[in-house]
Design a protein that fits this description.
- The protein has 2 domains: 193 residues, Spore Coat Polysaccharide Biosynthesis Protein SpsA, Chain A; 73 residues.
- The chain contains 10 helices and 11 strands.
- The longest helix has 24 residues.
- It is an alpha/beta fold and 288 residues long.
Length: 288
Amino acid sequence: MNKDLTLVFSSYQSHKLLEKLIRKFSNKYRIIIIENSCDYEIKKKFSNLKKKIEVIIPVKNLGLAKSYNLGIKKAKTNLVFLNNPDIEISNKSIIQLIKCAKKIRKFGVIAPNYKNNKIFKNYEIFNKKKIPSALFEKLNIIEVDHIDNSFIIDKRNLNNNLFDENFFLYFETSDFIAKLKKRHKKILIAKKITFHHYGSKSVPEEYSNLVKKTRAYHYNWSKFYYYKKNYNFIYGLKAIIPNLAKAIVKIFFGLIKFDIKAVKLSLLEMYGIISSIIGLRSSYRPKN
């Protein structure tokens, strides 16, 4: 058993994607899956894989922030690779990431690079490009200001500063990265180590209505909360007002067209915005 790394996945009925992905992994890694659909039958679907897999079925949907925190706490290794299920990454890339983490040691997160990063990058550089050290140049590592999902953390560098569990979905990674940067931890991209992210493919199509409802509420709740927390209340209002205006316009046109589904989704957007502004918790959990 590899003592270096644990792979953690937050899942919602994503077993088909995960089975296909995990079959390609080395038997050396320990894998933790947080199955947020609370479907106990999911455990059986991984029983035929000869891998060290722990499927955790929580009593309720934890969302991404709580799932990642649970995976980090359960991991017996210092290095933890946090992922959504809709990715494609090779054993070679994982091994290279481990080598980078061991050589750099003091870092916030290390992420692989998108294979097709000419269309869309999984990182952003807001400020002037940092001057790389000799080690970073040798490893083809760049320091960035923000990354998307799929990255390695070292538990020893976190000092129990985990994900903010007020987030259910959306902006939890942005907040986590902002927290690390405030503590002067480096956010790193390994440019030559690549993976593919399918994007919005984690949950099967049959749950598309649930996904739409969840996004309508939680994206807006989380957006205001993130900007209020990391900047201030007024900044949060400025960031969320365009979303509120769009929701109102969509409700108006939805009523004219008798598009009840569109109206309901837009009302959920408004509900998320208003709930966040007045300080309510992100409590909305759609059933279907």
